[in-house]
Amino acid sequence: MMQVNVGSPDKVDANVFLIDSSNTSHPTFRAWCAVESWALRNPHLDVWFLLTSHALDNTDLLASHLLHRYPNLRVARAPFRLFRGTPLLNLYNSYAWKAESAWPVNQLSNMLRVVYLWRWGGVYSDTDVVCLRPFTLPLNAVGFSDPGAANNAIMGFTRGHAFLMDLMEDMVKHYKPGQWGLIGPAAVTRVLQDWCGASTLAAQDGYKHLSCGNVTVYPRHYFYPLRVEAHHRYSDADSGNYFDKVNTQLHNQALRLPFSSFFLKFYIQDLYYQALRSQFFYQFKLHYTAIYC
């Protein structure tokens, strides 16, 4: 086991945060896939893979290999004292998100991502999102995932941005343990309604930029160009051609897409060959074919 120590960024607004809040010591290849993609494409940014576990299983040497390969990669433990001085402190201390919710891992992740952006600034990315090219978009932005609705799977903000404070306050106000996403994508959408105007946001089809003060909502093809129903296209014999077509047409900087060995081999090569040597690789392919990576 590799001990995971608490770590804090020494850069402001030049960070990428990915979070595994499941308290596991063995993150999935799916998560490492996302982590490596961000470290590979963005050597100018510090990429933080934040865990709630105190230890990391390095039996397959994957973690040590990636840490050696990418000097901008950091693996650290997320200390819960981060909630001090934020509107989320009472919600976290109440443990309602854990004891009363069917999705405690998701609820904790929703809270942590906002706090990290608020304290240090940069980009947050879910661990089912891969970065295809250097991330050069200006900060203070989210993306449409559907008409009139935004998502929190990818967000970029400068440290201490007012939108993040409004977001934390909204999360506390609207939290209900029995509803998934209420303090996630729904919270981002609610705050955007305040910043942009509810009628203005509702009128958006999701395919155009929207500026609300100094916050930009990017068209859905920037971050969420693929629908869940398209996952099979990455698993058939022609998946490579389909992926190249989508990538060329949309010019996206990040993608939520299903796992495929084609993608790993040609876009995240180190992880592919490391996984190929692992006894878990083919089992992983079997179980995660239809899950974003």
What would you note in describing this structure?
With 293 residues, the chain is α/β, with parallel strands linked by helices. It has one domain: Spore Coat Polysaccharide Biosynthesis Protein SpsA, Chain A. The protein has 13 helices and 12 strands. It has helices at 29-41, 62-69, 89-94, 96-99, 104-120, 162-174, 185-196, 198-202, 220-223, 239-250, 261-267, 269-276, 281-288; strands at 2-3, 15-20, 46-51, 55-56, 73-77, 122-125, 129-131, 141-146, 149-157, 210-212, 215-218, 254-256. The strands form 3 sheets. The protein has an 8-stranded mixed sheet, sandwiched between helices. Strands 1-4 form a two-stranded antiparallel ribbon. Strands 7-12 form a two-stranded antiparallel ribbon. β8 and β9 (149-157) form a beta hairpin. α5 (104-120) runs antiparallel to α6, α6 crosses α7 (185-196) and α11 crosses α12. The longest helix is centred in the middle third of the chain and has 17 residues, at 104-120. The chain starts with a strand and ends in a 5-residue tail after the last helix. The relative contact order is 0.15. The model is unreliable at 235-252, 255-262 and 276-293 (pLDDT under 50).
